[in-house]
Write a structure and sequence with these properties.
mainly alpha; 5 helices; 2 strands
Length: 153
């Protein structure tokens, strides 16, 4: 079995062309991947351009450099994190606080368990908790004893 030098030359040429096409496709796909990835991670145009140029010029070592220097979180992840923090802060702000010690209290507590500050009073007729400033019970319409409204009548 003899191998013709022109056939060997043609096979080498085809292999080289295939390898070059593969490397070119890999190079372009890395550039496009970098452009899409950096677009999801930052709004800074200069950083976007520099990232793509580094990958375009350095190829695989450029991708390694990009992966080391790119922002850790995407813009969507940062937005989700800020929403979670805002919701947590909102829930903390919505919780009532004791006027005496400033600690969080529950809505239906009559007295603060920490500083013993009176938070609410009981209606003498229905027993439901009332705010200290209320003159009348909103549940049973009974006038609270000792209030200004009772003293007027």
């Amino acid at each position: 079995m003899t191998l013709d030098p022109t056939a060997f030359s043609n096979l080498t040429l085809i292999g080289t062309a295939f390898s070059a096409a593969f490397l070119a496709a890999l190079w372009l796909s890395l550039i496009f991947w970098t452009a899409r990835d950096i677009r999801n991670r930052t709004r800074d145009r200069l950083l976007r351009i520099l990232s793509v140029v580094v990958v375009a010029v350095l190829n695989l070592p450029g991708v390694v450099v990009y992966l080391i220097l790119r922002p850790m979180k995407t813009l969507d992840e940062e937005y989700q994190k800020s929403l979670e923090e805002e919701a947590l802060l909102q829930s903390l702000e919505d919780m009532p606080q004791c006027p005496g010690c400033g600690r969080s209290i529950k809505e239906d507590w009559i007295i603060c368990p920490n500083c013993h500050t009176r938070l609410k009073k009981h209606c003498h007729q229905c027993g439901k908790p009332l705010e200290l400033s209320w003159n009348i019970c909103p549940y049973c319409t009974a006038v609270v004893p000792g209030s200004e409204r009772q003293e007027e009548s």
